Amino acid sequence: MNTEIELRRAMSEYVAGVTASPDLLDEVRRRHHRRGVRIRVLASAGIAAVTVGALPVYGLVIAGPSGPVTPGPSAPPASGAATSCVANVPSQLIPKWARAGFTAAEPRIPYVLGARGDIVALLFGNPLAAPPRRDLSNKILWASRVALIPGDPLIIEARLDGSRTTVRRTVPGGPGPSYLDLPQAGCWHLTLTWSRHTDTLDLRYTPQPG
């Protein structure tokens, strides 16, 4: 029996909320104790952890006394955050972690939050336009909820919806002020990478009036 497949099955049962039986654990121990596989069971939780030498953990969420523990930080989108590719993003109360530099007690500005909630695009050039307008630039202030590596850039991979058109932009020094001009109007799907974090969001660029 393949060790990795057996452990995947045991972990999948746990993640789905099914408590593996002691018989299953004994079977895994008997079959794989010579392959360097070690299984630790906390009696208070049925199966609280599975430790596997030299094998990856496939998205396992371990529940402990203080609640779920996930592999990395994440947060749900803030209430009222723009999640669709709309042309005119409404002004909203900025998340508390993104208010550095704002003097108002409750600053409101159009913004789009990343799908993971780890980054936000504060739109000073709302609505964004392609090509950029003369009276209003496509200025975006990027703010990160998660820790930054000093000097690490923000890499933006943008793909135009319904096409194979992709562009790459770089914000030196990481999340901060930028002018994000994209080659044509439409809904752009952005993949953002910075300081070993990744998030995604959508931005719509409107065409210039004829």
Characterise this structure.
By secondary structure, the protein is mainly β. Helix content is 11%, strand content 33%. The chain is built from two helices and twelve strands; from the N terminus they run ααββββββββββββ. A hairpin with a 5-residue loop joins strand 8 (151-160) and strand 9. Mean pLDDT is 73; it is low at 1-25 and 31-82.
Radius of gyration: 23 Å
Q: How is the main sheet built?
A: 5 strands, antiparallel
Basic shape? globular
Sheet with most strands: strand arrangement:
3-4-5-7-10
Distance between the termini: 67 Å
H/E series: HHEEEEEEEEEEEE
Classify the helix fraction into a percent range: 10-25%
Mean pLDDT metric: 73
Question: Approximately what portion of the residues adopt beta-strand conformation?
Answer: 25-35%
In total, how many beta strands?
12
Q: Name the structural class.
A: mainly beta
Uncertain residue segments = 1-25, 31-82
How many separate helices?
Answer: 2
Task: Write a compact overview of the structure shown.
This protein has 210 residues and is mainly beta. The protein is 11% helix and 33% strand.
What key phrases describe this protein's structure?
about 210 residues; 5-stranded antiparallel sheet; disordered N terminus
Secondary-structure topology with pairs:
Elements: H1 3-15, H2 22-32, E1 62-64, E2 67-69, E3 91-93, E4 108-113, E5 119-123, E6 129-130, E7 139-144, E8 151-160, E9 166-173, E10 177-179, E11 186-194, E12 197-207
Parallel strand pairs: 6-12
Antiparallel strand pairs: 1-2, 3-4, 4-5, 5-7, 7-10, 8-9, 8-11, 11-12
Helix pairs in contact: 1-2
